[in-house]
Batch of 4 targets.
Target 1
Amino acid sequence: MTTSITLPSACDFHVHLRQGDMMRMVTPKVEEGGVSLAYIMPNLQPPIKNTEQALAYKSELEALAPNVTFLMTLYLSPELTVEEVRKASQAGIAGVKSYPRGVTTNSDNGIENYEIYYPIFQAMEEEGLVLNLHGEIPSDAQKDICVMNAEEKFLPQLEKIATAFPNLKIVLEHATSQAAVEMVKRLGDNVGCSITVHHLQLIVDDWAGQAHHFCKPVAKFPHDRDALRDVVKAGHPRFFLGTDSAPHPIATKEGPRSNAGVFTTPLVLPYLAKIFEEIDALDKLEDFACHFGKKFYGLSQKPGFVDKKVTLVKESNVAVPQHYEISATNADLGVVVPFYANRDIGWKIVSNFV
Ligand code: DOR
Ligand code: ZN
């Protein structure tokens, strides 16, 4: 039985670090979770739509977590121009995130039609920027589209864009379905796929009636979760970690309508060790969490940082905290409840970034 794992610090290719007090609480927790490279989502209020905003945001994050490499993205919207794409590329911005309109948190500025963005995609292809796709289409009762099939119904769009731009790197974010796994496998080497911690663990029964497991896209059928588990177990190199960790104050999770998002940042590697152990795939954890994503993106980390190691040990009674206070000085801001709060996850980090 494996009781200790040492691996390089991990890369999280999809994370929400927010702004203001929430950002100040969450950002230092990236490192606590064993992660040293974080790919940052732009759905702030207002969204990060240009290079200047992305660089200013990056400086704030770096001040809060100097050991972490932050890779920044822009929010795809009609305001994004070809010139801005070129400028972003020059400034080291890594990608552009597309949200379909209205499907999730802060997606009111999201897009409705991908073809109008083809000139942008072409410039991104030329400049080597990555297209990060939230792969769902909006629900439409008339067309029998709801959260359970919204991802599958999006897949033809993915195929269309990937075929039209064979040299554009595209990531289907937070895949949840067997159909998505099969599509990404079938498409070429320009298409990768991020997989979250929580989607390796949850199915629909776990979020129906449990607000803290509600996220977008929602967790689906058992056979869908099996497909995600199987593809990471197979060590497919185009499937890699992107947690989509998305903190929300408890009041907006447990309120009349729950915000979408699961918070995993403080314990990313312990959660993964538990899940990979359960699916008998601990030998695949390092590639999934540390190498495949960087390889797909063709990225390197801050010099001198690549060799940092994290050691986890298996232990009984490793309880996930009940919650994290958003501000140490202002209790009114409330708390964030992490994934698997109060549960024993059986693994803990004993040395980090050594
Ligand atoms: O569950 C989610 N939460 N999915 C998203 O796409 C957005 C995220 C958030 O920002 O809260
Ligand atoms: Zn996200």
Target 2
Amino acid sequence: MARRKYVVGNWKMNGLKSALGEAEAIFAAAGQQSAVDVALCPPFTMVGALAALPKAVVGGQDCHAAQSGAYTGSVSAPMLVDSGARLVLVGHSERREGFAESDADVKAKAEAALAAGLNVILCCGEPLSVRESGDAIAFVLNQIEHSLPDAFDADRLAIAYEPIWAIGTGLVPTLNDVSAMHGALREALRGRVGGKADQMRLLYGGSVNGENAAELLSAGDVDGALVGGASLSAAKFNPIVDAAAALAG
Ligand code: PGA
């Protein structure tokens, strides 16, 4: 079954109101591409403003596992929905590493997001030491085994494989390594959801840009990209969407 390409921008802690024009230009161009799904994940403060733009599909970058309560500084999945978000990233390595989020935390967040009606992009990826020791696939499959919700609709959850050493560094894995990882992820997902794993989109993330997107997106079992730095401007992001559209035919 053909899976629609999916290109998602993660603005991280970037984006003031002055960046709205970039988002507008990104969604306007995406609206012309019928074969590609495009979404942007801005900081919480910008979710509502982006969601109000024409053709917008907006996500959060994280959510709390609880619906509400005494969690100063946190934002819940129902709050994201209330602000206009339709999806959320969970388990980004910058959350896992910088905020000590465990697989169990990521799983709880994914479950809360699905329960609130958000689609989920669950992130995974190995540090450089693990890649160098040759254990990357086992490491990532273990992350996924423990971070996936017990039950989920295959069409509401995507996986983003982002090797930590490739994020923001300009380094990218070989196509063989990307395909091997995505193939292993697909196989592991079959163990969880059977044939529905073939509907699930597996995104690659880590230094994706307009120059390397066509190649990375053509690797086996790669259904899209999660893009950080190159998602901050339409000039850099739209060529990635164009590359995905060209592959989608
Ligand atoms: P990058 O970030 O594209 O800037 O490497 C990707 C990500 O962290 O999602």
Target 3
Amino acid sequence: MTRLAPCPLSPAMDRDPAATPDPLADLPDHHGFAQRLSLALATGADTVAVLNVRIDGFRSIEILLGRDGADGFLHGLAARLAQVIGTRGMLARGSGASFLIRLDQSAKGTADLLAQDIRAALRHPIATCAGSAHATASIGIARAAPGRGDDRPVAETLIRQAAIAAVAARTAGGNRRVRHTPAMDAHLTRQSTIVQALRQGLGNGEFTLAFQPKFALPNDSDPDTEDAFRLIGTEALLRWCSPELGRVGPAEFIPIAEKTGMIGDIDDYVMRAFARQLGRWHAAGHTVPASINLSPHSFEDEAMASRLLGLLERERVAATAVTVEITETALLAMSRHTIANFERLKAAGVEISVDDFGTGYSSLGYLRNSTVSEIKIDRSLVLPLPCALSDQATPDVAGSEAILRAILTLGRALGLRVVAEGVETREQMTWLRREGCRTIQGFLAGRAVAPELFERLHLSHRPGSQPSQVA
Ligand code: C2E
Ligand code: MG
Ligand code: MG
């Protein structure tokens, strides 16, 4: 028979706080754990590893079972962990929905084996008075180095390393064990530095926009213009030069900004700078169509579309000259606000482009209903195309070619503009052109440059049809 994990009666349960420092799970808390670990390490005891067991998606368990049910769940979980650990080590509560384990050397088996046993024990649901629930865990492992004297990490370092490894396990998708490595510390330090520098950077005007040209390829029927590209648009790409960190690429800082909630301020800056620059160009007669990248998080803000449209209007930029790029994965979780923003933009004449197409889980159904005007093939698919030196069709090349052909066919069938990103070589361009791709972006045709340089290179000598040349 399943034993129900108790739901706590009330916060003021009659317990002796000295005997049970954490009234929830009758276990030592972080502080108690650190003290005992410290003592064990100082007296040369045989601790070999610390494990941090973080419950994945605990928030959804709280929503499912309610606050009391979730507390009961943690009781049940603690009991199950204690059973699995047995005499192998010691269990304690960590912060939030996490547990700490000290694995002793005298124990049979390794930390990996213990982690494996914990994951096996979690395969069965935990019953509480509010219902039962399943959980998976991200398990971080930090190993002590017995016998290495002074090199042996102190208790807090071991606990921290196990927590860092657990975060790495969760970032990798959860439901797995990850051992701590020194590279993780470097990564985390870099991330924390970026978080701090981002906050300052926004206030200090350290961000700028660069513009990359987007070109139409000539038709096969016109061999004389083989090298001629016709500018059909530009994409605004964010650049950050921090006095402390130097140049940091958006591929590194945008995900951090998304995780820490700073993306709203960043996208806001991008919208304002984008509208201002387009306003200047349009006023000077350069009515080049332009794309802006916005994070899926910003689409969750119900006022986003109105804000962008308001900024464009203020700068006297026609909404029809603007395309908003959003990554493919954002189409998966189409919330009410995201759909409303899409529709508002579409109604005003803004085009929607699906960025990095071919790398995420696409909601192909959404491509059908005419909200999307453009798909941009991710450059990871363009990269393996054959180059002049090696003409052999390796499996990588053959696979990419098949996917590219399928995307081009899909685009044609749905009447979408298909842009190939990251085109760096003539061979890639020739292949794409032969397969019917009409629009490219990439270093071959032009890099992202500051607006003044973009104007000089691509706009000033542009009597509408004069081609740019392959560099
Ligand atoms: P994306 O929108 O797919 O942008 C294309 C990226 O590929 C840009 O990198 C561009 O510089 C790079 N690229 C273009 N042509 C080539 C090529 O031929 N070869 C190679 N190797 N790379 C090429 P970047 O500027 O580092 O941006 C990376 C990503 O960061 C962007 O991917 C976009 O998802 C995001 N991002 C950039 N600017 C913004 C922004 O203003 N707001 C938001 N939310 N995201 C942005
Ligand atoms: Mg883009
Ligand atoms: Mg892209």
Target 4
Amino acid sequence: MQKESVYEQTYKQILAVTDGENNVIANMATVSCLLNLAFEDYFWTGFYVVDPEKERELVVGPYQGTLGCLRISYDRGVCGAAARTGETQIVENVHEFPGHIACDSQTNSEIVVPVFNKDNELIAVFDVDSTKISTFDSIDQLWLEKIINNVFKK
Ligand code: SME
């Protein structure tokens, strides 16, 4: 199946499951689980949330995959870049990304989407890692932003 079709199906499934649910952790767990199940290439799928107690620092949230680092400063890694800029980051080869944090050496490419609430405040970043090089492109960006905005901006 084409990845657009997988995204479309998964998008509908995520919206159906999270309909009427406002608990952020429950919604993050659902998004991580269903996207991770939908794509074989998704090897680490999850959230780093803004820590209200530490300035410019993310702390790991719900995820599927191997052990992730617990904390990421806004100054470091692809997640930090997404938090800093408020823009989606696509990295074709993490080994060429200055400051990439290698939580698991199997990661070769990744996409990180910032997560905003309905007041447009950054609440987290959504990170997907792949064991292959160049897994993610503008199609992934479009669908992941659509999923994240629909689930967390309500
Ligand atoms: N890839 C991230 C670190 C988190 S993990 O890979 C789970 C980064 O460089 O921001």
